[in-house]
Amino acid sequence: MLLQLGGLETLPALLIGLIALAVVILVGRLVLKIAWRLVLIAVVAVAVLWLLGLVGINVL
What we know:
Elements: H1 2-5, H2 10-55
């Protein structure tokens, strides 16, 4: 099977590629975690402004 992959010199490249993929996935998870928090804060802020507008308090 190693001969089909091109020999042993491709294994380090494969390992580096997998490590790079793992780093990208971990960074992506952190970015998405922050993005979800920002979206939830924005939803709450818009809901509060909308409710204040319904009551008659014009904030903007």
